[in-house]
Amino acid sequence: MGTALVYHEDMMATRLLWDDPECQIECPERLAAALDRLRQCGLEQRCLRLVAREASEEELGLVHSLEYVALVQRTQALSKEELQVLSGQYDAIYFHPSTFHCARLAVGAALQLVDAVLTGAAHNGLALVRPPGHHSQRAAANGFCVFNNVAIAAEHAKRKHGLHRILIVDWDVHHGQGIQYIFEDDPSVLYFSWHRHEHGRFWPFLRESNVDAVGQGPGRGFTVNLPWNQSLYSLGSQGWHPEVPTGSTGPLTPLPCTRQVGMGNADYLAAFLHTLLPLAFEVTVCALESIHSVRMAQAPYWMSLQQQDVASVLSPSTNSLEGKPVVLLPGGPTCEAAATTLSSFLDRQNLCPMPHVRTAVALTAPDTALPLPPDELCQEGSAPREETEAWARPHKSLAQDEALDALGKLLYLLDGILDGQVSSGIIATLAPAVEATLDVAVRRGLCHRAQRLFCVALGQLNQPPDLADDGRILWLNIRGKEVAASSMFHISMPLPRTTGGFLSCILGLVLPLAYGFQPDLVLVALGPAHGLQNPHAALLAAVLRGPSGGRVLALIGEESTPQLARTLARVLHGEAPPNLGPFLMASPEDIQALLYLRAQLEPQWKMLQVAGEALGSGGSEPAAQS
Fold it and tell me: One of 64, 134, 135, 174 is an active-site residue; which one?
């Protein structure tokens, strides 16, 4: 069970038959470029290949009126002149004799992908489709979109597979008003869209694309718009002027001097961590003004946004991250998008060669009953004994043979990860030897290729006294009662007492630090009395795969194995973390500690600079915890 890829060559059949500058960018080359790039990168052959089918008229009727479906069907027999007249009745659309066939394939591709994921044939998947769909409405084509592929797929998942909670994430320069209109009163579908808005001056020029459009009736709170409004101006040969509507009602073509929103990676990650992920957890934000506005508008409907300036305090409805992503990617002008999206599913960061082994597990006493996928292995290799003893010499706790054996395996596995032979790994050692083994891992990593190393130490693990503060090591200690940031790279905080507090810690501190630091390697060490349940440890390891390109090495005490090793192996292999169990909201003490640390670290870490002045008001010294 891997990643599915679905498309059909016939979807490139439609093209513009007359002169229309507004619609000319919607061309077959958009899809062809994306497919070519996937093939060049060697990604297509690594996927479960699905061939798109045509959606039935009954399936199209899940969200579209029968009259509208019949109208599109009749375009197959229209002349060029008749097609042009009909197209002119809609906003930024053109019809072609092959439109009905191609649009049905686009919908069918989405339905096949949903079926494959929900029946277990695929773990996740990507559909490359054309024409796109998110602008199309119940009885109207709009913005190059004929049938609303994603909306139909969501209705299909509800009716055929019995789903009750669906999250749609719409990442496009334009607002997908079609999806919003279809589900605006439906609490079973949470629609999240980030899009260029320019305070209503960017297509589709709708008031309801703004942050205060939150749904209607029972669906209030289930429409979430994050509009990008910040503008950057550039000069062209004809002088300075903004990009504004000039009588056209469709997507704007760039003027010689254009105004661009200019959002970057930090803005999108802020939106992920402070708006999208808290809502995603609850249902299963430079963009300071937009993110703050979204949180304010949505706070009455989502408990995860009601805690001032904290990213994630969840409701009792929280279950797990066991949902599986399905992505529909219209063939866009930037063909890298398809390769990047698919690469992330396949755990192949920056399109580097895929390691032969996804995850290696090295246990002090190998558990023959530990089931591992084909690209995982129980590691038997070890560094040379003389080299291992040299690294162990400064540490008395590594003198025992069992601890020394585990250290040799760690050195061997660490080299494999940093050399690109192994993606991630798990090492078990004697509980009293975890701290010393972690110290060796840090020093060895910095001596061998790693330029930046992020260490997350849980439990009774002390920071090495001579740990350099040179920006190469980011040390986060989660233990005891201490709340401190001795520097921007050396941080201590208590282990949150509840699931809500733990998720707040991950989304509000751990991930912003990790993405800001961009480590070459993440070390997660679970020391004595770490207090972390297996599902929580699995979630921590899983979310840290993204910032590190999949290079995560988990170090655990032998008393935690084999159950913890088995759970960690699954998530490092790419499976979803298990259910987090009973939910309790974050305690006031946990929130106060998190706010204090964020206030202390915010000036140095841009990823934490998303809460405006209000965050500073919560940055007072936390009270001692009992």
Answer: 135
SS3 91: strand
Residues 6+ apart with CB under 8 A from 617: none
Check whether the bond before 562 is cis (ω within 30° of 0).
yes
Q: How many residues does the chain have?
A: 626
In this structure, the strands spanning 259-260 and 232-233 are antiparallel
CA separation for the pair 168, 443 (Å, rounded): 44
Residues 236-267: tens digit of each pLDDT: 333 323 332 323 233 433 333 344 556 777 77
Say what the pLDDT of residue 291 is.
56
Handedness of CA 178, 184, 189, 191 (dihedral sign): positive
CA angle 171, 101, 5 (to 5 degrees): 45
CA dist., res. 350 & res. 352, Å (int): 6
In sequence order, what E strands does 398-472 have?
422-429, 453-458
Which stretches of the chain drop beneath a pLDDT of 70? Answer: 1, 230-262, 283-296, 298-299, 301-325, 329-359, 363-380, 560-561, 583, 610-626
Instruction: Verify cis geometry, omega within 30 degrees of 0, for the bond prior to 131.
Output: yes
Q: What is the pLDDT of residue 218?
A: 95
For 480, the token pair is: 């005891």
CB-count burial class (<10 Å; 0-12, 13-18, 19+) for 222? buried
Q: Which residues partner with 493 through β-bridges? A: 478
Which residue type does 421 have?
A: Q
135 a catalytic residue: yes
> What residue has token string 């703050």?
292
Which neighbouring-strand residues pair with 194?
171, 226
